[in-house]
Amino acid sequence: MAPLLVPEHGTRKRPHCATCLRPQSACICPWITPLVHQVEVLILQHPLEVDNAKGTARLLQLSLPHSRLLIGEVFDPQLLTDSPKHQLLLYPETANEQALGLPAPPVLDPACLSDPTQLRLIVLDGTWRKSRKILYLNPLLQQLPRLSLRDMPASHYRIRRAQAPDQLSTLEATCAALAQLEGDAEKFQPLLAAFDGFVAQQLAYRPTYT
Fold this sequence. Notes:
The protein is built from five helices and five strands; from the N terminus they run βαβββααβαα. By secondary structure, it is of the alpha/beta class. The chain has a domain of 142 residues.
């Protein structure tokens, strides 16, 4: 599936890579690692993440052939219902959801997980606050069963502050979810190794992160 290109934001003075859409001096294409995967992935990215140099969604999408990346806060319901596959939302259940008026998500039927080729994983790309806003503004997302990650190691995402060591980047969380759904963690190790290279590249541009 062809990548969905991110629209231009104003006039860009520096030459930009046509593939990763970053300045050519900061191109991340060397870290693109195409993988063979079974589960379809739909990435919903908050608009404020588009030009974030520390973001991982674009690298993830370019590395997953069966994926799309859409940008926005409110999404056309047709975009979320255009697939006959079983849809899962990669998002943890949090304690404050009831206070926000969000309904409890439906229980995930284990029978739906028997065939990875019939699954579509929906991933929200943004900070906790931004991703929660996307969830709040899109009732169809609230109606999806959720996938919870199990036994996660500490994140390698050293370029962005996290509230806890097991809070992962979008790329790391999606790789973990796909490994869990497809039963093959080794398949996604090359992309995670490339992610480490991406992180090192960003650290080289800005030695001290806060």
